[in-house]
């Protein structure tokens, strides 16, 4: 579009203007081209893109993945009975519930999926009695912390009442992972609470557009230019500059709101479902399940890549004590060398200050 506008202005200047109009156009083009450097476009756009990318990276880092806390709960909260399973599943559900409460206030996609607190009960993230407890909590501010508090209380109960946690260190480890998850949710609320001032992106986007509108006039090859200058009707460098700067601006524009509804924004609903499914799988299905340790020789004829001694049937077996004792040290001869001690066999010294013999 900009190249087409440049061509239209070029044709209008060369073929439709009178001589006096062309002279005035050339004066305006020279004047604008000299003062175009007064717009610090590189500084403005670079600083703005740096801020936007840093915020985007921080939001992505703190979006909240459940694996760390689920692995600690599944490992340190022991028990195979029904009560222990319900305990671990409930801790994960409370953490995901806290994430849903945060995301439904900062993401339109999540808000559309969970328009009310009743929808959380319908989706299975919250029970009716738990919802009534949330309503009874009298505070005029948000209640993101309440499911985290419930999860901490369950860990404390598992330590001192049901004895599913065997030590204070294990309890502290689980609580620290829950704390890290809560801090990630807190960072998301902070970024939503204090966004980039709306005037800043407007000024940057306006500066980019005004800069290249001025280039439609200032970057023309003038008819009165000296014949020594390169006569190029197509401004190749200006076109490249337009592509790079406008592309730079579009990148910042796409990353400005990572929790929005564009195709490039984060899929928060997918993340919620993933965290719930993965967390339950870790603490319930995969709890206390580990392949048994095997010291026998495997049946695979090809062996494995870290066994390097072939057996009679062609497979590879782990190195035995005999094989290790027969292993040759390639540096044995070097380490066992006898250094000469007689003056006749000693090599000459190449030092400039060596004493004379």
UniProtKB/TrEMBL annotation:
The keyword Repressor does not apply. InterPro entries: Bestrophin, Bestrophin-like. It is found in: Cell membrane; Membrane. Coiled coil: none annotated. It holds the Pfam family Bestrophin. It comes from Caenorhabditis remanei. It is a multi-pass membrane protein. GO terms for molecular function: chloride channel activity. GO terms for cellular component: chloride channel complex; plasma membrane. Residues 338-357 are annotated as: Disordered. This is Bestrophin homolog. Keywords: Cell membrane, Chloride, Chloride channel, Ion channel, Ion transport, Membrane, Transmembrane, Transmembrane helix, Transport. Its main location: membrane. It comes from the Eukaryota.
